[in-house]
Amino acid sequence: MTINMSFKLSRAWFLIIIFMLPMSALRAADSSTRPVVIIDGFAPGGGTDVLVRTMAPELSKMFGKQVIVENRTGASGHISAQTVARAAPDGQTLLINTVSMITSRSLYSNLGYDVRSDLVPVTQLTRIANVLVVHPSLPVKNVHDFFSLAKKRPDELIFAVTGLGSISHFVGELVQQRVGIRSTLVPYRGAAPATTALMSGEASYAFIIPIVVSPHISNGRLRALAVSTIRRSPALPHVPTLDESGVKGMDIPQWFGIWAPAKTPAPTVDMINREFVRVVALPKIRERFEREGVEFVGSSPREFGAFVESEVTRWAEVALKAGLKPEF
User: Fold this and answer.
1) What confidence tens digit (pLDDT) does each residue in 245-296 have?
2) pLDDT by residue (tens digit) across 291-325?
3) Alpha carbon distances (Å) from 146 to 151, 167, 213, 275
4) What structural domains does the chain harbor?
5) From its phi and psi, is residue 211 left (phi > 0), alpha (psi between -120 and 50) or beta?
6) What CA–CA distance (Å, rounded) separates 71 from 87?
7) What is the C-alpha R_g of the chain?
8) DSSP helix, strand, coil percent of the chain (3-state; round to 5)
């Protein structure tokens, strides 16, 4: 009887274990075999998209699994940020986004997430100049000509931005206020659509990073007038800075960063950080992008977190001075 009872108990425990193991094993297998998905908040062909898709094959080797890129455009990158903020904190879903996610906070009354509490900073990838580019039909050769024309034709020039509240929007707003010009703003869903509109003549000018517009500047389909950083871009050494052109103290780079969902374990965040830092140190990646004006950073999670905090404060003040208020 005792032996039989012991057998029944053992059998019961065996069955419980059998039923429990597949679920945990499935979760473990799912985590180990599922591809890592990097959510990009901007359109295919834009700066973040070109960079992360070039990095993805190298990241796949380092992670030991496929890394894929998924574009979730709209709302200046906030739709992608919402998606990642709501994802499981298992290191399988990551976000690549830009300073536009910070600048555009002032234009949204309810984002549905907080960059400081719902996302974990992994690393700042890059720092890049924005280029003031115009359609070649515009009768201007330099920034002075451009400002003179804009003052003569208030609201006539079409200012293409890569999204409301994007850094391209903020640079333009600040320049307009500093020099006293007015243009008609038209937002697009990323740098690629804005560039297409500019080349077609649908728009007059824009501020877009070199990685997107350099080829079109080279072939004459766009004309570069100035860059928004305090130093000239290595990609366009012949193009002066806004500071050199009379808009003193202007230093507004575009930057890209990587985030994970909140509550992602610190060891997982550190592992992801190490792999991204390794990737941006690869000669093939640096050679591909540095000649296009990309300055790689590769900061630690703590450094990037402190930087994001400083950017939130900086751009809130800029938005207040520029008179930008929530529109959504």
Assistant:
1) 999 988 888 999 999 999 999 999 999 999 999 999 999 999 989 888 899 9
2) 888 999 999 999 999 999 999 998 888 788 778 88
3) 9, 20, 19, 44
4) 35-127+254-322 (3.40.190.150), 131-227 (3.40.190.10)
5) alpha
6) 15
7) 24
8) 45, 20, 35
